[in-house]
């Protein structure tokens, strides 16, 4: 059962609906069983009856292979191995993609993870949100090095092969852009959870602890901060306290069982569990140890939090306790009153999620949700809550409580402390209104 308003749209091509069944296939002279769906194919199909419907549908992304769907899959042989040239892809019926922000330049833009569509706790690498200040560089790992220097005994350049030969650590953690939910300060803006909260992804990262590299170069007594620098056109730089680097930072080269995706920093990125996304420098090429922060553009002009009194907070590095309901959420449609399982994510940059509460009445009363996975530090948790919807208007909310005792604030609590001058680190409770017709929308209470 699809509860999306665009039921048609998410269904994907099948049966009589399948655009590849009639006109398109002979027209394109592709083989009987598969159709490479591309912009060209869509254009070629334009005069055909199926085309207008196709245009409205969420179809497989360009380049995806669409196979005919047999009436009875037990009556004909399935396709053989290696038709994918040895690198598999998801089912043609799974069509959710990252959605890009409406920005003048794609190279300095971002994309949102479809949070309502991912399954389990990990974000598939192909759906990890993206935020680039100078585009995605193409870097040959054979020519890439990481230079560690400054207040060290011996400055050293590490090749990727050298880094991979060191003992590694594999762990899960989320990355959240500090700009996640930034449009929600003054009025409910994002239409759906992908846009409101989709600058959040969770990954199993593999890499070498910074502490291991530190032993190779030898930190001097007064080492206190480290500049991390990227090899992209933005040459993005941030200063990181040495304590964080020595405790749990990873120089990561692995993402969910394979090399980092180029979008996530191939061949090397800094992972700082729980810290704001912008500190986790991608395409990492340099670490300079110092006795003070470098006060780069990214930590003086950008990524500071302007307070009520006009002063700005610097180095607000940890992401706060936060949660969001992903089902039901904005732009969805509940077809009729009845039983539903509310679902969502909770996370905190200050440790494990301790508990999640759900409210069905806009925050008047709360009840504990079920945690669907064992909480890990600085990682997301899935929660769920069984709900009988009586068909009356309801306002659904969730709040995260982390192991450090932080409780996700209401909007008014957050604004009373922070004012409304801030852009980043908005972690207020999200409200979704369910109307009596079953439609769900973003509201402020
Ligand atoms: N070198 C470099 N590192 C970078 C960025 C960048 O533009 N260049 N963007 C930062 C920001 S603002 C965020 S939120 C995260 C996003 O990581 P992702 O694109 O893997 O989701 O990377 C950070 N690291
Ligand atoms: Mo970011």
From TrEMBL:
<dbReference type="InterPro" id="IPR006311">
    <property type="entry name" value="TAT_signal"/>
</dbReference>
<dbReference type="Pfam" id="PF03404">
    <property type="entry name" value="Mo-co_dimer"/>
</dbReference>
<dbReference type="InterPro" id="IPR030835">
    <property type="entry name" value="Sulfite_DH_SoxC"/>
</dbReference>
<protein>
    <submittedName>
        <fullName>Sulfane dehydrogenase subunit SoxC</fullName>
    </submittedName>
</protein>
<keyword id="KW-0560">Oxidoreductase</keyword>
<dbReference type="GO" id="GO:0006790">
    <property type="term" value="P:sulfur compound metabolic process"/>
</dbReference>
<feature type="domain" description="Oxidoreductase molybdopterin-binding">
    <location>
        <begin position="133"/>
        <end position="296"/>
    </location>
</feature>
<dbReference type="GO" id="GO:0043546">
    <property type="term" value="F:molybdopterin cofactor binding"/>
</dbReference>
<feature type="domain" description="Moybdenum cofactor oxidoreductase dimerisation">
    <location>
        <begin position="316"/>
        <end position="430"/>
    </location>
</feature>
<keyword id="KW-0500">Molybdenum</keyword>
<dbReference type="InterPro" id="IPR036374">
    <property type="entry name" value="OxRdtase_Mopterin-bd_sf"/>
</dbReference>
<dbReference type="GO" id="GO:0008482">
    <property type="term" value="F:sulfite oxidase activity"/>
</dbReference>
<keyword id="KW-0479">Metal-binding</keyword>
<dbReference type="InterPro" id="IPR000572">
    <property type="entry name" value="OxRdtase_Mopterin-bd_dom"/>
</dbReference>
<dbReference type="InterPro" id="IPR008335">
    <property type="entry name" value="Mopterin_OxRdtase_euk"/>
</dbReference>
<dbReference type="GO" id="GO:0030151">
    <property type="term" value="F:molybdenum ion binding"/>
</dbReference>
<dbReference type="InterPro" id="IPR005066">
    <property type="entry name" value="MoCF_OxRdtse_dimer"/>
</dbReference>
<dbReference type="InterPro" id="IPR014756">
    <property type="entry name" value="Ig_E-set"/>
</dbReference>
<dbReference type="Pfam" id="PF00174">
    <property type="entry name" value="Oxidored_molyb"/>
</dbReference>
<dbReference type="GO" id="GO:0020037">
    <property type="term" value="F:heme binding"/>
</dbReference>
<feature type="region of interest" description="Disordered">
    <location>
        <begin position="1"/>
        <end position="23"/>
    </location>
</feature>
